[in-house]
Write a structure and sequence with these properties.
Region (Disordered): 181-203
CATH architecture: 3-Layer(aba) Sandwich
Largest sheet: 6 strands, mixed
Strand content: 15-25%
GO molecular function, one term: GTPase activity
Number of strands: 6
Low-confidence stretches: 194-203
Strand order of the largest sheet: 2-3-1-4-5-6
CATH class: Alpha Beta
Radius of gyration: 21 Å
Helix content: 25-40%
CATH topology: Rossmann fold
CATH superfamily: P-loop containing nucleotide triphosphate hydrolases
Pfam family, one: Ras
Family: Belongs to the small GTPase superfamily. Rab family.
Number of domains: 1
């Protein structure tokens, strides 16, 4: 059984939620962490950190999820928290084309402020089928061109929310394990090189 004490978890990673105002970042977090949904969600002011324990590759991991504000006045603050993050969810609202058009900005922010992060592109609010403005095919094409994985979600109906975060967790953990293995191999290679014997005065 997984404990609520996150300090016992070896694999802990920072993840930033990015995207324009009103795309449902906070609702995605609430659905993932509390399994709740509300039509009235207060505007995110600044940032908030929510830890979530997941099970991926038969390992426990904790994602420290940073919910960033989408409004322009908070963007300089967001950049500070994006720095060095190993992973991000970039979300847009499928019923608002302008939030899809903003994705280039958010991608640039992510890859400018972090070193080769893992990223999932999320199209949220797919429950609002009659109001949809962004075609799934267009979002998939954008993801393909930018080498991203695309997931469509509904925080309201709990569609693919946990799957999006679990997939990101897998990607981050896999990269981390490969990096650790590469570092261990490098250290072993260095230690296997025989050190030259210094000649003493009696030799």
């Amino acid at each position: 059984m997984m404990s609520d004490n996150y300090d016992d978890c070896k694999h802990r990673f920072k993840v930033v939620l990015m995207g324009s105002h009103g795309v449902g970042k906070t609702s995605l977090l609430r659905r993932l962490c509390r399994d709740t949904f509300s039509l009235t969600v207060p505007e995110t002011r600044g940032l908030s950190d929510q830890p979530k324990r997941l099970r991926v590759f038969d390992k426990d991991i904790v994602l420290h999820l940073w919910d960033t504000a989408g409004t322009e006045k908070y963007r300089p603050i967001n950049a500070l928290y994006i720095r060095r993050t190993p992973g991000a969810i970039i979300a847009f609202d499928v019923t608002r084309k302008e939030t899809f058009n903003d994705l280039g900005y958010w991608l640039k922010e992510l890859f400018t402020n972090s070193d080769d992060p893992q990223c999932i592109l999320v199209g949220n609010k797919i429950d609002l089928t009659e109001q949809r403005e962004v075609r799934k095919e267009d979002a998939e094409e954008f993801a393909r061109k930018n080498k991203l994985i695309y997931v469509e979600t509904s925080a309201k109906d709990n569609v693919c929310v946990s799957q999006a975060f679990e997939r990101l967790g897998e990607m981050i953990l896999e990269k981390n394990m490969k990096s650790t293995l590469s570092g261990d191999n490098s250290r072993r290679r260095l230690s296997s090189v025989a050190k030259p014997v210094k000649k003493g005065c009696c030799n």
